[in-house]
């Protein structure tokens, strides 16, 4: 089992460019999440999904879009990147949304110039 | 302990000593808590969890204590090893809601 994988590991974008971050899990988890992690702050939830074909907004959704076309994949899109989106992005998955541990991927470091 | 800001609090301990990392959580209705370990350049890794109907839970070399009266969580690591060096953070969950994560404490193990 690879667990949760993320691609790419690192990316540099110019302001206004777009990109998609890919998350994949092989644990047959229903729930998937995208977080961002900034220095000195806790993980903040961007969007999450409770199953294939469903998505919902988290704490900081502005500037991001997501899609869950397949159960094992959760995509995070930045349509027009801004320097404020410079961060480390983590994907996670869990069997259930409540009272369940979330398993995290290794992260994607994004720098927006 | 936890603090809001750009710099994480750091706990330095001698190898072989016990470590105690603290977390003040925010929601008195939270009923499930997790401690995560995050090594440099890696994703968070589950260490131990505890539900609100317990005040103590033990794992391998780790113990979590929960004090609901003062909304405080602590992680104790016995016989701290160099491999324990990492950022540790707690997460709280209010039934049916999403997790809220603390900013973390950096544990530095001195030889």
Describe this structure in words.
The complex is a heterodimer of chains A (113) and B (111). In chain A, strands 2, 4, 5, 6, 9, 10 and 11 form a 7-stranded mixed β-sheet that branches. In chain A, strands 1-3-8-7 form a 4-stranded antiparallel β-sheet, with no helix packed on it. The mean pLDDT of chain A is 94. Chain A is 0% helix and 51% strand. With 113 residues, chain A is mainly β. Chain B has strands at residues 10-14, 19-24, 32-38, 45-51, 56-58, 62-67, 72-77, 86-93, 100-101, 105-110. Chain B starts with 9 loop residues before the first strand and ends with a strand. Chain B is an all-beta fold and 111 residues long. In chain B, the strands form 2 sheets. In chain B, strands 1, 3, 4, 8, 9 and 10 form a 6-stranded mixed β-sheet that branches. At the A-B interface, β5 and β10 of A face β4, β8 and β9 of B.
Strand/helix succession of chain B: EEEEEEEEEE
The proportion of residues forming helix of chain A, as a percent range, comes to under 10%
Total helical elements of chain A: 0
Radius of gyration of chain A: 13 Å
What is the assembly state of the chains in this entry?
A: heterodimer
The number of helical segments of chain B is: 0
Helix-strand blueprint:
The complex is a heterodimer of chains A (113) and B (111).
Chain A: E1 4-7, E2 10-13, E3 19-25, E4 31-37, E5 44-51, E6 54-57, E7 65-67, E8 73-78, E9 87-94, E10 103-104, E11 108-112
Parallel strand pairs in A: 2-11
Antiparallel strand pairs in A: 1-3, 3-8, 4-5, 4-9, 5-6, 7-8, 9-10, 9-11
Chain B: E1 10-14, E2 19-24, E3 32-38, E4 45-51, E5 56-58, E6 62-67, E7 72-77, E8 86-93, E9 100-101, E10 105-110
Parallel strand pairs in B: 1-10
Antiparallel strand pairs in B: 2-7, 3-4, 3-8, 5-6, 6-7, 8-9, 8-10
